[in-house]
User: Which sequence fits this backbone?
């Protein structure tokens, strides 16, 4: 009898261990093959930094673009923000207009890059960067503009990932280079046009002094959830693979897992695959039910062509950890 109880106990421990592992699954388990003829492409342009919002029945994508002839480094001088639309989340998206270009003698005089679109109340807010530690925003009451820009930077960091909280306040996760280390920081404001205040003491809110680029953020399972480029591979072991973190308070983040959520190889829905020179700028789309249903990434080929690839995601909700 004692031996039987020990066997049953061992089985219970094994089941609990398996369930714990399943609950710790990242977005990776829900990612489906990319749709080969979807996403967003423009002949002659590098496309980067996509962000999508649904207005009525139309999906609006904002992205960075610059002429392909300048190469990837051309973003530092020529990046501008454009808008494209589709009646399908996965696309293909069709170019509509140039939304933002750099302005002389303003905070965004270097470039307009890394857009992120959210809706705060009845206002659309488009966050973007100029130089490395300059984040500001433009706002409009219509998704088609006109857009009103801030005169000064709102936050002295880059790669903003904004989240509009239920009470209308804003939480922004981003990165800042400090002594050549790309750390994570967060700012909050009572409203999109309020004063943005640094959270914590300004030190890295990722564990183990892990580094990052390109975060995207969403709220689900009573926690902040972030997908980002694992700069230098301190989490996943591979530089710039996708890494996933969560936080209960928005100040202390922990990894969901050490596994790579995505890498440089894209598997398509026709069974083919493509390994890119770079795959960065993840953006996740969250539906009305709070589920992630799409992953957008910017992909660059060895010969310098770049477009936005979209992977459908099978209704992913992160585990509550």
Assistant:
């Amino acid at each position: 009898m004692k031996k039987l109880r020990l066997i049953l106990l061992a089985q219970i421990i094994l089941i609990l261990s398996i369930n714990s592992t399943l609950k710790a699954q990242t977005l990776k388990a829900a990612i489906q093959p990319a749709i080969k003829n979807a996403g967003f492409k423009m002949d002659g342009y590098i496309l980067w930094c996509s962000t999508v919002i649904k207005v009525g029945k139309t999906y609006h994508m904002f992205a960075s673009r610059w002429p392909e002839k300048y190469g990837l480094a051309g973003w530092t001088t020529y990046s501008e923000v454009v808008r494209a639309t589709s009646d399908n989340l996965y696309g293909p998206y069709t170019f509509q207009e140039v939304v933002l270009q750099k302005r002389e003698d303003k905070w965004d005089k270097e470039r307009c890059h890394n857009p992120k679109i959210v809706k705060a109340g009845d206002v659309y807010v488009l966050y973007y960067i100029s130089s490395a530690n300059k984040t500001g925003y433009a706002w409009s009451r219509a998704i088609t503009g006109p857009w009103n820009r801030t005169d000064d930077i709102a936050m002295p960091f880059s790669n903003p990932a904004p989240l509009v909280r239920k009470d209308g306040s804003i939480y922004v996760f981003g990165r800042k280079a400090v002594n050549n280390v790309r750390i994570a920081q967060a700012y909050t404001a009572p409203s999109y046009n309020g004063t943005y205040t640094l959270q914590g003491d300004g030190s890295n809110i990722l564990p183990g002094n892990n580094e990052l680029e390109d975060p995207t953020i969403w709220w689900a399972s009573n926690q902040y959830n972030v997908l980002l480029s694992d700069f230098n591979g301190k989490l996943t072991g591979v530089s710039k693979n996708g890494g996933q973190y969560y936080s209960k308070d928005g100040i202390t983040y922990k990894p969901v897992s050490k596994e790579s959520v995505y890498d440089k190889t894209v598997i398509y829905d026709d069974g083919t695959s493509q390994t890119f020179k770079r795959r960065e700028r993840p953006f996740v789309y969250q539906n009305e039910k709070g589920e992630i249903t799409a992953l957008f990434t910017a992909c660059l080929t060895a010969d310098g062509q770049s477009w936005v690839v979209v992977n459908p995601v099978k209704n992913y909700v992160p585990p509550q950890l």
Q: What stands out?
A: The first strand starts at residue 45 and ends at 55. Residues 2-23 form the longest helix (22 residues).
